[in-house]
Amino acid sequence: MLLSSWLFVVCAIFLSPLFAGIIHRTKAFFAGRSGVPLLQSYYDLWKLLHKSAVISRTTSAVFWMGPAVSLAALLTSLLLLPFGKTPAIFSFPGSFVVFAYLLAAGRFFVMSAALDTGSSFEGMGASREAQFGIFTEIALFLALTAVALRSGSFSLSDMSTLVTAQEWTGNLAVYGLAGLVLFAVFLTENARIPVDDPNTHLELTMIHEVMVLDHGGPDLGWILAADGLKLWIFGTLVLNAVLPPALAHGGLDFLARLAALAVLAVVTGAVESVMARLRLGRIPHLLTGAVAIAVIAIGLALR
């Protein structure tokens, strides 16, 4: 089991950039275009890591620490994340709290790096990120609490590995609602439509992209790598909730879940192709709705 757990971490590191490529190709399909190459994210990472960075003299060490700490926090969170029946490398009661705050630490340092530039433009993006982060953290905690109540454990690994097929089928409403909430968190945390448009550079609509405008070279490469890992991590959370405990026998279950991640990337691209970005004032309504659904899931889990 430990070997498969480490294999999951290795796959996350090397395959996560492919997630963005699948989303881009799906959106290109809906738009009737050929789109960028599937491996474009790998090309971008290679190019950025071989460039030098231009750093403003007004910034401090916080600026270059932001991308590095964010990536380190995400890599550490992978050690606490199960993959279906594949347990996490580290498992202990309350690990989902540590997991959530590792993600929050990464967000904090990216926001701090944006504020460190002294730019009101990047400060605006950091402010929006902080506002929406409050809602997503609450929704994430409540959704994981609902799953924990049904699994009987507050270990993130046990929430997935200890669930039997009978337990899962008998509580489809709880897992389904938790999965829906986690999908909303997935879209928000990854700055996807309808919450944010990762391809826009319009001042009035930017959230994530505005915070990283001053980064370049390897620093921007670490940010792109972190974005891919974040897609992978939150996508895994969604699949752990909505998929049956075992999709196949043995190693085939691992491969099936990798394929399910690819399907989730296609679904994400389809959502972005058929929906428009919400007005900023509407986004708290969406996230408040996710929190309310999570509360209903907890109520069903306690019945």
What is the number of helical segments per DSSP (H or I, 4+ residues)? 12
- Going by helix content, strand content and strand pairing, the class is mainly alpha
Structurally, the number of domains stands at 1
Q: What separation lies between the terminal Cα atoms?
A: 34 Å
- What is the total tally of β strands? 0
Main sheet summary: none
Spans of 5+ residues with little confidence (pLDDT < 50)?
A: none
Task: Write the element-wise H/E pattern from the N-terminal end onward.
Answer: HHHHHHHHHHHH
Shape: globular
Task: Explain the overall architecture.
- With 303 residues, the chain is an all-alpha fold.
- It has one domain (2-302).
- 71% of the residues lie in helices and 0% in strands.
- It has helices spanning 2-31, 40-49, 61-78, 95-116, 120-151, 156-161, 165-170, 172-189, 208-211, 218-242, 251-274, 283-302.
- α5 runs antiparallel to α8 (172-189).
- The radius of gyration is 19 Å and the shape is globular.
- The mean pLDDT is 91.
Describe the SSE topology.
Elements: H1 2-31, H2 40-49, H3 61-78, H4 95-116, H5 120-151, H6 156-161, H7 165-170, H8 172-189, H9 208-211, H10 218-242, H11 251-274, H12 283-302
Helix pairs in contact: 1-10, 1-11, 2-10, 3-4, 3-10, 4-5, 5-8, 5-12, 8-10, 8-12, 10-11
Jot down its keywords.
71% helix; 12 helices; 303 residues
Q: Could you give a short description of this structure?
A:
With 303 residues, the protein is mainly alpha-helical. It has helices at 2-31, 40-49, 61-78, 95-116, 120-151, 156-161, 165-170, 172-189, 208-211, 218-242, 251-274, 283-302.
